[in-house]
Amino acid sequence: MKKLIYSLPTSLFEIFAVEFNGYGFEILNRNIEETVFAIYVEDNELNSVKEAVQEIFEDLGNGTLILEEDIKEENWEEKWKEHFKPIKIPPFVIIPEWEIYEGDLIPIKLKIGKAFGTGLHPSTQIVLSLIPEYIEKGDSVLDIGTGSGILSIASKKIGAGLVKGIDIQPEAVEECKTNSWENEVEILCEKKSFEEINERYDIVLANLQIDIFKEAFDKISKLFRKYLIISGIYGEKERSQILNLSKDLDLELLKEVSKKDEGLEEKWYGFVFRHSKKN
Questions:
Q1: Could you give the CA distance from residue 47 to residue 29 in angstroms, rounded to a whole number?
Q2: DSSP string, 130-164
Q3: Per-residue confidence (pLDDT) for residue 108, from 0 to 100
């Protein structure tokens, strides 16, 4: 097994985290200027993971591989157990797949993946906090950019009917399938772009980059009937951009949620929209 240590300007790291959706990383050091983080990967997946990271770095115009080193395979599970602690986002609690939970929250199990200590991205936590308020029993749900499948699983556990999680990364689709099995819920995990979706769903979840919303918010807005729950919006500039886009599409803002991330100056935002009643 390999440990890949990367450096990236902190101003770009959160964009990387959203792009690297479905995978984990360990933050080794973080300040206003720089974030140093590690990704743990099996030897047979080393090249594909390195290529995926490099592609994101090229899009961002920055990012460096500092060190690549071997780690002992037998220590892998113990490292997970040491770093991956339960994360509470009521009514949910995120736990590693080996742990037995006996509390009052709804457990979502995540299987050992390509890294530990992810802590869940703030944008993911925002959507998780909104799911219980807007998804009703029997609602159909489309999760765009499903990654690990955590939002799809949460939707199903809260009582949703048909739940489909789509992602353009085949590795993410496999993670979605694995975690769905671990949680004993039925999720349709598919390798597909939202541009290939023609049917409408009661609820659409989209934890994506602002660039994607700027290019395709009109398409995404046509895929839901009741509510559109989005996140992945960082800082006041992106917040203003998404609100302006929603007005152009006659979407009504129902709720706005923000969350501060340690080490960053600005907040992450999430929003709930519905179609304007005049439409």
A1: 25
A2: HHHHH--TT--EEEET-TTSHHHHHHHHTT-SSEE
A3: 93
Q: What number is the average pLDDT over the span 11-35? A: 76
Average pLDDT, the chain: 87
Could you tell me the CA-to-CA distances from 98 to 114, 119, 127 in Å, in that order?
Answer: 16, 17, 25
Residue 243: is it exposed, middle or buried by C-beta count within 10 angstroms (0-12/13-18/19+)?
Answer: middle
Stretch (H or E) spanning 235? helix 235-248
Q: Which two tokens stand for residue 220?
A: 């995404």
In whole angstroms, give the CA distance from residue 179 to residue 22: 11
Confidence grade of residue 277 (pLDDT, cut at 50, 70, 90): confident
Q: Where is 173: in which H helix or E strand?
A: helix 170-182
**Distance, CA of 101 to CA of 113 (rounded, Å):** 20
Q: Which tokens is 140 given?
A: 């159909």
Number of Cβ within 10 Å of residue 196's Cβ equals: 10
pLDDT confidence band for 70 (50 / 70 / 90): confident
| 74/29 Cα distance (integer angstroms) | 25
Do 204 and 155 form a contact (C-beta atoms < 8 A)? Answer: no
**What 3-state class would DSSP assign to 169?**
coil
pLDDT at 115 over 70: no
Cα Rg of the chain (Å, integer): 18
Cα 79 off chain centre by: 22
C-beta of residue 228 within 8 angstroms of C-beta of residue 206: yes
How far apart (Å, rounded) are the C-alpha atoms in residues 53 and 132? 33
pLDDT at 187 over 90: yes
Any idea what the Cα angle at residue 261 is, between residues 95 and 142, rounded to 5°?
60
